[in-house]
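<context>
A single protein, sequence plus fold
<sample>
Here is the protein in question:
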Amino acid sequence: MKTAVLAVTAALGVLPAHAWSASDLVFEPAYFEQAAPVTAFDMVARLPGFVIDSGDAVRGYAGAAGNVLVDGVRPSTKNRTLDDILKAIPASQVARIELIRMARPGLDQKGAQLLANVVRITAASSVHAFTLSNYTYTDGTTRPAFRAETSRRGIAGGWEASLLLSRNQDESGNGERVKRSPSGELLERAHISVDSPIRGAEARMAADLPLAGGTARGNLSLTHQDYRTHEAIAFVEGGMSGLNARTDDRIRTNSGEIGGEWSRAFGGLNTKLLMLATRKDIAVRSASDDGGTPSDYVSDSVADERILRVTADRTPERGAAWEISTEVAYNALESRSALSIAGTPVALPGGNVTITEWRGDASAQVKVPVFNRLSAEMMIRGEASRLEQEDHASGFVYSRDFGFLKPKVLLRWSPGTRGQVRLRAEREVGQLDFSDFASSASLLEGTVDAGNVGLRPQTSWVFEADVERRFGADGALTLALRHERIDNVLDLRPVEGFDAPGNIGRGKTNAASVQFTWPLDSVGIAGGRVSFSGEWRHSRVRDPVTGNRRSITALAPFEGEIHASLDRPALRSTFALDVYFGQKLTYRRINEVRQTLAEPYASLKWTFNATPRVTIETSVQNILSRKHDRDRFVYAGPRGTDDIQFEENRWYRSRTGAFISIRYQH
């Protein structure tokens, strides 16, 4: 059997991984050589049949797992995305990348069905890199950025640090806003201009080193972002013809994180201790003047999180493996907001609140190799939490206790290294977003959302089946079906006359997804490949305003992307086309139905390795100058009992931009 595995993996151009799980695939640096990758992110992005998933943005550590490991462990951070972490690892410090398709001893898999494990070299090395980049848009706007990175690896461990100073902009452009009566009569036409500049700064450091017979890992990060949106409106037809309006929005975010993990093996028992603390300060300042009616919105919030987690696992070379863990987390949010229209304050439910939560989480997991090609993974997690909210305006204090059991069963069957079937059944429990307890408003969108003290977590039973097939040297195809039976669907519902996040009963979601990587050598295009990832969704829930069945709010019926690349080593170049398909989102409020649609976003990129130390990347971003549409159907009163008062269409085309970066690395 081992000889057969070696033969198949040799045909794939990779090597077999750990003997406990011969279905895993190992990609050596030589596999990526033609693409001349600069960072570990460039390498992981080219793994056939794999898409990076950064995990969920939730409180706590256990539920935020992504699908990429570094040296077999999850990074001890929540403030950095996997993309950022991988881009901080130079390709020259990667020894290999393992695509984990079966349960494997010693890896922090957290139940993921497919994992990438970036294994760094242990030999001494150091890399220093400096990158200058600039975006230039069709209106003449330029947005420069500078990044400095340094890293050092040794036999015992290493460290890395980076500094980023950036200016950029979100999609900006020009368009039109048209308002009509239900009969089609023109009520208003206006030209609009949208500009969204962004400024940011980041300082990060991470290290791992031997400590007390084990390994200590730590990270520290500080980030700042200033995100502004300016929308100018010039009325050209209708009752406000000749007038101008403007909305200026500013969101300033400062965040910091410090985290550490210590792991050590005691005989056959592996133990880990994690401590993590984060803080995020968000200030919103928004002002608008719509035809002589001024509005102002102010919001300040501070979020804190503290996590302590202990894990122990026993992972023998063969036979059953097990893991137990416990986690305690403290979370707090202080939020204050105020809205005034034409100088008159508007009372917002939950406009001045403090929310605190103590959460405990414990889990036990068993991984059993049923036979050489079949493994079963069974997990039971339990969580208990106490949530307390204080409304400072009314003095009202409210507390609630929650408790849930979350079982999970995952089966993996690998009839060979070229195929695998994965079956999953799991009870998932969503987390309540603290910001849903506090009021918020958007003058740009013209919406006010009240806070809702009566929220309950959304729970669901999830059943999923994946079928994976690999072909040729790079080809991979994965088909998946997923069914979710949801209780306490979180959506929008009326609260004290306002729209607010709330539970609206039972619902369901069915989804089908396709992922494939197709090498183009078979059609005569040497060094070419195309990859596609897409998911189609259909959801149903009962509308709390009309009582009719409809889709879940803001759940896109389709989401997908396609990437094509062409390696030309003789030219020291790689060419790429990236397309992100647009999304259609629907929001149903008390007296409004809103639909947003963004057309596909496409970019062309050329990466040129000028010298072993200098890499030049140029690209044309948003080459289709995609259109952003927003349709509003506003009713005279609650939907289902009143007629449509007016219809509004707002659209603009975002500008195309040219990007260039020069990276020097030594």
